[in-house]
Amino acid sequence: MLKFIRNIVEKSVFGVCSKASEQMGIRKTRVRLYFIYITFIAMGSPIILYVFVAFWMNVKKYIRKGHSWVYD
To answer: What is the pLDDT of residues 2-52, one digit of tens each?
Structure first.
């Protein structure tokens, strides 16, 4: 049951931490844990960076596929 919930959450979030973990060669759980710690220490400001990176990843995906996301 716990794995099922984890899979749903991982598919529904943007995938910023998993992409960063692939780039750095670190486990996903370790990157997510560091992100949570940094968010608490910096009083929530890394969430803005997270949303920006998620938006940029989405735009980059549309550019690579050649979609015209202006008219969607």
So the answer is: 788 777 766 666 678 888 888 889 888 888 888 888 888 998 888 888 888
Residue 53 burial class via C-beta count within 10 angstroms: exposed 0-12, middle 13-18, buried 19 and up = middle
Q: In angstroms, rounded to a whole number, what is the distance separating the alpha carbons of residues 15 and 71?
A: 25
Alpha helices in 1-72, H assignment, sequence order: 2-12, 16-24, 28-41, 46-65
Report d(CA 44, CA 38) in Å as an integer.
8
Extents of the domains making up the chain: 2-65
Asked if 16 contacts 53 with a C-beta cutoff of 8 angstroms, the reply is: yes
CA distance 9 to 45: 22
Prediction pTM value:
0.59
